[in-house]
Amino acid sequence: MGSSGSGKSTLLNILGILDNYDEGSYYLNGSLVKDMSEKQAARLRNELVGFVFQSFNLISFKNAMENVALPLYYQGVNRKKRNKIALEYLDKVGLLDWATHLPNEMSGGQKQRVAIARSLISQPKIIFADEPTGALDTSTSYEVMDILREINADGITVILVTHEHDIAAMTQKIVRLKDGRIDEIIKNGDLKHFQHQYAKELETA
Amino acid sequence: MFDIDKWQEILATIKKNKMRTFLTGFSVAWGIFMLMILLGAGNGLSNGVSQNFMRDAVNAMWLWSGRTSIPYQGMKENRQIRFTNADYELLKDLEGIEYTSGRYYIGGNLFSYGSEYGEYTAVTCHPDLKEVESIEMVDGRFVNQVDIDQTRKSVVLGKDIYDALFKDKNAIGEYVRVNNIPFKVVGVCREGGGTRHRNAYIPVTTGQKVFNGSNRLHNFALTINAETLEESQAIEAKVRETLARKHKFDATDESAMGSYNKLEDVIQTMKIFQAIDIFIWIIGIGTLIAGVVGVSNIMLIVVKERTKEIGIRKAIGASPASVIGLILLEAVMITTIAGYIGLVLGTGLMEGINFIVEKQFEASAATNGGNGETLFRNPTVDLGVAMSATLLLVIAGAIAGYIPAKRAARIKPIVALRDE
């Protein structure tokens, strides 16, 4: 987390190979990610990572099931099979009944859950979530966070960007950015301290 | 390319974006449709007019004698020039001349058979006239060489004369009276491409003998072996020179001997049609360009509109090639199908018009004894032309889609995702 302009999203985009970086080096799954061709980057994104965005980024003319199944299309999985898998993942996020609905027929929370199902379907190693709760109210935010925590519990790394302390407090490790640099890293054990500090910040605000 | 899944993906996209698909398709279909109509109309007009020309052989030439208007070799002007059978023999063997027929005018042509009678024209001729004036036989035969040699009193009646004198009875072998002299009917004919068949044909030698013409001829009808205007004019000049030398008049004297060269007219008219053709092509190509621009424009908008979608697709693992392929195949598919629809509609319309025109032609033909009048016939377009026009639009659509699609596929997904 960090304040606006601190470089949260940029870092996330670089980690997710959505953007290039100028200095330093980034190793993903043991291989250097730098100046990759679009084709290679696309393959890595498809196989290793999943994305969840603040604005959901579902394809508006495809229904929930088709949206979830899309990553498998790029893996060359045939239509029947990938739709079946998509339904399984929709079931996991509790949206099986909404499979044939278009994104604009769903609420924000539902859309985000569809997006999460989509990020999961390719069985990635890491999920990048750029302010996944930014466009949601508190209770739906918590629902979405519950799902993300379950995913994390299943062994998939979840990296999420947020500027909401309550959301950050649900994670196991917090990296604070300031002016493009890592300011502090708060690990599991120190979370209590973070929560304390968070309370203090609230008081001063 | 022939991955069924890809096509399903494209079909799904098309199905979900009907307006966009319709607009792209419409501009293509409209371009082809207009081109078909333009070219069809041009062809129809051209066909109609050339058919009217076919009444006589297109390479026909007529010569007639008159009085000199220019003094020549010490002889005064205003001297009557007379053609004779010897001129016929001369012309017949002249190089470049195919068919020749002389004619001697006979006056007062009253035809009668039994109680029926009428005033018609008796044309005295050689057998070759059949070719020069494209005469078609309905029944029996035309004047032949034996008629000429034996000065037989044979007559070939025009269809209108036959209808008036004989109604539906058999005429062959019957005798009709021409100026009260009995002639034996040997055939019934129609004038090719014409609507009136009021001429009767009798052997020229018989005409001269019976109607006191001795060896005189008034005019000649001939066809010449010429393909181009230059050839035809050269032969015409040669004919004029030959006759001028024989009859001692200035070859340039139009009033001593008049001549009409049909090929000149035909070639002139065909030139006009070539010009019209070019004009139509210019408009047609203009229409095509408008279609190409329309398709390109829509493809640009389509790609712009889909930038975010492209970003999403790339974020979840679409390679640039698959993005380009998706947009390109969609563009090609829409333009091909729409082009085909335009082709079918345009052809359909032209066939419909053709049907009506033929109906009218038949109707006018029925009242005119077999030959209809029309300025517009067979307004159809060469399928090859139509196909290549469609192909051009498809390629244009593909190029128009490819350039922005490639650009869209190259931009970083994060930039594409930010696009609203």
N-to-C SSE string of chain B, H for helix and E for strand: HHEEHEEEEHEHEHEEEHEEHEHHHHH
Distance between the termini of chain A: 17 Å
Strand content of chain A: 5-15%
Largest interface: A-B, 32 and 27 residues
What is the number of helices of chain A? 8
Q: What amount of the residues of chain B lies in strands?
A: 15-25%
**Oligomer category:** heterodimer
Q: Compute the separation of the termini of chain B in Å.
A: 30 Å
Q: Based on Cα principal axes, name the global outline of chain B.
A: elongated
Largest sheet of chain B: 6 strands, mixed
The residue ranges of chain A in which pLDDT falls below 50 over 5 or more consecutive positions are none
Number of strands of chain B: 14
Radius of gyration of chain B: 34 Å
Average pLDDT reading of chain A: 85
Residues in helix, % of chain B: 55-70%
- Element order of chain A: H for helix, E for strand: HEEHEHHHEHEHEEH
Spatial ordering of strands, largest sheet of chain A: 3-4-5
Largest β-sheet summary of chain A? 3 strands, parallel
Task: Characterize the structure shown.
The complex is a heterodimer of chains A (205) and B (420). In chain A, helix 3 packs parallel to helix 5 (108-121) and helix 4 (79-92) packs across helix 5. Helix content of chain A is 44%, strand content 15%. In chain A, a hairpin with a 2-residue loop joins strand 6 (174-178) and strand 7. Chain A has helices at 8-15, 38-48, 64-73, 79-92, 108-121, 138-153, 165-168, 191-204; strands spanning 27-28, 31-32, 49-53, 126-130, 157-161, 174-178, 181-186. Chain A contains 8 helices and 7 strands. Chain A is of the alpha/beta class. In chain B, strands 4, 5, 7, 8, 9 and 10 form a 6-stranded mixed sheet that branches. Chain B has 420 residues and is an alpha+beta fold. Chains A and B meet through helix 2, strand 3 and helix 3 of A and helix 1, helix 10, helix 11 and helix 13 of B.
